[in-house]
């Protein structure tokens, strides 16, 4: 059952990457709350890198899982949590534990995503308010451009 061993290895790699993405997301939220733009950009770049790695691991896992489904005569595209019952006993425990851990990490990431979305929405609301205030005050800066007044043309010329 070389494929089972490889599947468990892939899932452990995915789990480690997801755990690191969670850590980076925590750092990004903290940086966002503190207004640390450099840390936000650094965290976003790291998340993008880790997300690419996770996508590649997931593609590899899906191919391997399809092979296992065929080998074990399971329905196509079954859920990962459906596999342990069809595997030899020695693989059931580790696979079930990894499946639960991945579900937990995905839930945590969804919560962080919602929190970050809320923070971004709040920041945008503040930015819009400041832009309106600056516009009303007819101040020029990077956020708003003051409307131009058309001057009177000297008709005596």
From TrEMBL:
Pfam families linked to this entry: FlgN
One GO-annotated biological process of the protein: bacterial-type flagellum assembly
Annotated coiled-coil segments of the chain: 47-74
Keywords tagged on the record: Bacterial flagellum biogenesis, Coiled coil
Protein name per the record: FlgN protein
